[in-house]
Each structure stands twice: as C-alpha cells, then as structure tokens.
C-alpha cells in the first residue's frame, strides 16, 4: 500500500531562544511507544535543533519525521467492506421483485416487504461485519 511521511515541529512561541533552549533527549524517540491499528511505523528520524526567526526574535525548534506504511488488512476491513455493505443494502430495492417472485404485488406491498426484509438484512450485515472486524482487531 502507500507510505506517508509526517514531519512534526515543536517550537516555543512564548520564549525566545535566549530564554529557552530545546534539545533532544540523548535516547531520542523510541519506536516502542508508538502503536497504531492502521499503519506500521517504519522509521523515525530526529532532525537537529534549529532557530527560527520571527520578527526580531529567534525561537528554538525541534522536529522529527515519521514514515508510515498503511496496513492492507485494516484498510479492507475499515473502508472497503463497509462501502460494499452500503452498496448492497442500497440495491435491495432493485432485488425486491425477485425476493418473492410474485409480479402482481402492488407498490405498497413491495415497499412493505422490502422494509421488513431490510430490517433483518441490515442488522445481520452489521452483526457479521462487527464480528469479523472485532475478531481481527482484538485477535
């Protein structure tokens, strides 16, 4: 899947660099502290401290870059499966004629039958999705 690079900048806005000095801890940023369900953290790179000039003052700034790779399985479960379920439920009105096989039903009868069927189908689809999603997410 795709990769993202995010830059995070930490800067003092209230104190100038003469008053406040910002430095990285010798240990830096550890990867063990960062866990996400939708991305793998591939790399963290700390950048050297810089001074940023604003008007007549300079402020200390620290920044680091994180590189992420998207988890394919999470994307499928969180984006594609719900989208597919929404499309399938929206197609129920097109499938209503073939559900009963009776072509002589009136519009009100078809609407009533579709409403009763969609009450059950929506709940079942929602339950199946949640069981699969949470079984993967917690397991």
Automatic annotation (TrEMBL):
<dbReference type="GO" id="GO:0016020">
    <property type="term" value="C:membrane"/>
</dbReference>
<keyword id="KW-0675">Receptor</keyword>
<dbReference type="InterPro" id="IPR006202">
    <property type="entry name" value="Neur_chan_lig-bd"/>
</dbReference>
<protein>
    <submittedName>
        <fullName>Glycine receptor subunit alpha-4</fullName>
    </submittedName>
</protein>
<keyword id="KW-1133">Transmembrane helix</keyword>
<dbReference type="Pfam" id="PF02931">
    <property type="entry name" value="Neur_chan_LBD"/>
</dbReference>
<keyword id="KW-0472">Membrane</keyword>
<feature type="domain" description="Neurotransmitter-gated ion-channel ligand-binding">
    <location>
        <begin position="1"/>
        <end position="71"/>
    </location>
</feature>
<feature type="transmembrane region" description="Helical">
    <location>
        <begin position="74"/>
        <end position="96"/>
    </location>
</feature>
<dbReference type="InterPro" id="IPR006201">
    <property type="entry name" value="Neur_channel"/>
</dbReference>
<feature type="transmembrane region" description="Helical">
    <location>
        <begin position="116"/>
        <end position="136"/>
    </location>
</feature>
<dbReference type="GO" id="GO:0005230">
    <property type="term" value="F:extracellular ligand-gated monoatomic ion channel activity"/>
</dbReference>
<dbReference type="GO" id="GO:0004888">
    <property type="term" value="F:transmembrane signaling receptor activity"/>
</dbReference>
<keyword id="KW-0812">Transmembrane</keyword>
<dbReference type="InterPro" id="IPR036734">
    <property type="entry name" value="Neur_chan_lig-bd_sf"/>
</dbReference>
<dbReference type="InterPro" id="IPR038050">
    <property type="entry name" value="Neuro_actylchol_rec"/>
</dbReference>
């Amino acid at each position: 899947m795709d990769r993202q690079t995010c830059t995070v900048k930490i800067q003092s806005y209230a104190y100038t660099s003469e008053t406040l000095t910002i430095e990285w801890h010798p240990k830096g940023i550890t990867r063990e502290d960062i866990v996400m369900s939708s991305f793998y953290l591939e790399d963290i790179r700390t950048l050297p401290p810089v001074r940023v000039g604003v008007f007549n003052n300079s402020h200390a700034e620290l920044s680091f870059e994180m590189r992420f790779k998207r988890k394919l399985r999470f994307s499928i479960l969180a984006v594609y499966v719900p989208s597919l379920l929404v499309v399938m439920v929206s197609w129920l009105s097109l499938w209503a004629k073939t559900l009963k096989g009776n072509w002589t039903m009136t519009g009100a009868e078809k609407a009533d039958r579709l409403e009763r069927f969609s009450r059950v189908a929506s709940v079942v689809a929602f339950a199946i999705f949640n069981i699969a999603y949470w079984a993967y997410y917690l397991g």
